Amino acid sequence: MLSHSRCFTRTLGRSLSALTQGSNVLGRRTVSGLSACIHVAYKNSHPTCNPRPSVFQIRYFKTSTAFRNEVVTVNTPAFAESVTEGDVRWEKAVGDTVAEDEVVCEIETDKTSVQVPSPAAGVIEALLVPDGGRVEGGTPLFTLRKGAAAAKAADAPAPEAPKAEAPAAAAPAAEAPAPPPPPAAAVGPIPTSLPPVPPVPGQALHAKPVSSVKPTVAPAAPPAHTDTSAKGARSEHRVKMNRMRLRIAQRLKEAQNTCAMLTTFNEVDMSNIQEMRKAHKDAFVKKHGIKLGFMSAFVKAAAHALTDQPSVNAVIDDTTKEIVYRDYVDISVAVATPKGLVVPVIRGVETMNFADIERTINELGEKARKNELAVEDMDGGTFTISNGGVFGSMFGTPIINPPQSAILGMHGIFDRPVAIGGKVEIRPMMYVALTYDHRLVDGREAVTFLRKIKAVVEDPRVLLLDM
């Protein structure tokens, strides 16, 4: 009996010593003290205890509070080679909770806008640049405390559990509780009549239909004194021009000061292209998954005409006083966005068909609407097409997009009477305009170019015959 008690005491002491080792160590004994001394052997009439060795599992815990509350500084991302600086427009403020990859600010450059996302979830501690401030690549923008949002959510009190709903019969009593009885100590005159009982909503005998209840009209308030001098007051407000708008204004003015711009006009009968689109639009969508529009016809016609008239596709190098002729056709398509006019480039149009052009236009237009156009999407371009017809324009003279030498302006389609075979007919007509740099392009080349576009759009079979 004494041996059993000694073994039990020894095993229990080992367990307690293991459990008290350090504040960050958790000891767990996997073999109980009672079972450690089950096997007892007797030798020379002296009982001995051969306890089973105790096994402990040690676990170390490291709190992640320091890592969770780490404060990081987010810098301005690197710009493209042609962009050196931009203006900051903040989407978040100090103390706002942001998720990972959520946009914190937007940097407006000369050509596009660069979004700066949050590198991790957390809370914004400080904005290091004021709204509208100018930054360069690598400039510190804001500081972020990582994981603070999760800590706030954990510290927030848990919402109370909804209470069980009372029976329907007790609902009217809960809505209109009876007034508490007067205290017993108060003594007053005995009332001669019972007090009026408030109506109970649940009593159906005295309820009236809603239609029979007449709303009470409140008495009209006397008219307030109005200052008649304020009726004719005129106000104005000022808004700072963003960098993209400033850059557009600068480039357009440079084009006017540099190029000798001249515009020639023509009109296009859209009957054949409308019939072709109507006849094949369903099959086109079924095969290519995109709609067939008029823009692809004009883009392909422009590529055909630029190949035929290479001077319209060329550019003057003012530094070397040379004319640079391009053997490729990259057409810029003007797209209007809320922040300004952008011109993404469709590259290698001379090798594309209608489906390729429509697919590329849709992709670039979607990126422009989502403000995801990169500088590389707008660099280059040998010719520009501007479609003002989508806004209802009937006639206009576009301005050259430097350093290009010409631009084609499309306008709206309107039914007009035209002479066809000596007879007057109503046809869907569109005015087109070509503005060109007269320093490089002569009138003959410009008129011939525009007539090529007219011929291809009116009869797309010209492309198959290479005429």
From TrEMBL:
- What domain of life? Eukaryota
Cofactor section: (R)-lipoate
User: Molecular function (GO) terms listed?
Assistant: dihydrolipoyllysine-residue succinyltransferase activity
EC number(s) per entry:
2.3.1.61
Q: What class of enzyme is it?
A: transferase
Matching entries from Pfam families are given as: 2-oxoacid_dh, Biotin_lipoyl
Q: Which InterPro entries match?
A: 2-oxoA_DH_lipoyl-BS (IPR003016), 2-oxoacid_dehydrogenase (IPR050537), 2-oxoacid_DH_actylTfrase (IPR001078), Biotin_lipoyl (IPR000089), CAT-like_dom_sf (IPR023213), Single_hybrid_motif (IPR011053), SucB (IPR006255)
GO cellular component assignments = mitochondrial matrix; nucleus; oxoglutarate dehydrogenase complex
Q: Where in the cell is it found?
A: Mitochondrion matrix; Nucleus
What family is this protein classified in? Belongs to the 2-oxoacid dehydrogenase family.
Role this protein plays: Dihydrolipoamide succinyltransferase (E2) component of the 2-oxoglutarate dehydrogenase complex. The 2-oxoglutarate dehydrogenase complex catalyzes the overall conversion of 2-oxoglutarate to succinyl-CoA and CO(2). The 2-oxoglutarate dehydrogenase complex is mainly active in the mitochondrion. A fraction of the 2-oxoglutarate dehydrogenase complex also localizes in the nucleus and is required for lysine succinylation of histones: associates with KAT2A on chromatin and provides succinyl-CoA to histone succinyltransferase KAT2A.
| Name of the protein this chain belongs to | Dihydrolipoyllysine-residue succinyltransferase component of 2-oxoglutarate dehydrogenase complex, mitochondrial
